[in-house]
Fold:
Amino acid sequence: MSEHTPSPKKIRRIGVLTSGGDAPGMNAAIRSVVRTCIQYGVIPVGVHRGYNGLINSDVVELNARSVNGITSRGGTMLYTARCPEFVKPEGVQKAVNACRYLGIDGLITIGGDGTFRGARDLANAGINTVAIPGTIDNDIACTHYSIGFDTAANTAIDAIDKLADTMQSHERCSVVEVMGRGAGHLALYCGLACGAAAILIPEKAFDFEKDIIEKIREGHYNGKRHFLIIVAEGVGCTDEIAKRVREQTGIETRVSTLGHIQRGGSPSARDRVMASRMGHYAVMRLLEGKSNIVVCYRDAHLCDIPISEALDMHKDLDSYMYQVACDIAI
Structure:
């Protein structure tokens, strides 16, 4: 079904699910979807555990009180799960059959690229779908911002600042690994915010001697006694990096892997507001008869593009931000 194809019948029930990795702000998006549905006379249906729940008809009708107070909570009240079965055509057909059996006329899916592919497959099978970007990695190319990124960045920055206090006290070097899968957007953002001596990301090749060791030696010569190196998880080898720094500089070096703590916590104001706007926007597009689209945030405005087009796009690193980080890390 094209994103411009009118809905074949009036939208009476809209389902909402979260899929893939959780991200702070997903609950705010769910709340927005539910209350926008109610405002326009549509019954909202929550789907538990992503596409796995859809295949198994694990759903619940929601109302305004069901989502009361969830905006400040991290994670997702609808839970999330992987669903290998949904990758196969038979799994998609089971989901389609479930939507028809449950009377779901439109479906809003919140997640990353994998979630988008599932929404596209359902749309191609005749189910009206709108996808909302939700991932702390902020690696979805079609949108400048994804729900959860701001909170994850602030969580990581808070942890790194605490590490900096003890690194300074002991005159150490701290090598911190942050999440991001195969992308370096989160690492770059945190590294620039925290004044890292070096930021190692998958998108940029680095020379160990020039980009790390020489910077540390120069800083040490000029009186600096503690150092921070940010490593994106997509780079890997964090322990090996720390070992080489220790051996080549003589500075005591510690590794900290922040891990899934970055996904939790109360969402920031930005994530709450963005999620609420995207949830409302998604419902309105379904009511207009649109389908097979992704909600995007571009140039300070919400818009939408076809899911297939979104999946074909590649998100480049912010080169200017990287240059800034390198130029001021002296």
Observations:
- The radius of gyration is 22 Å.
- The CA atoms of residues 63 and 251 lie 58 Å apart.
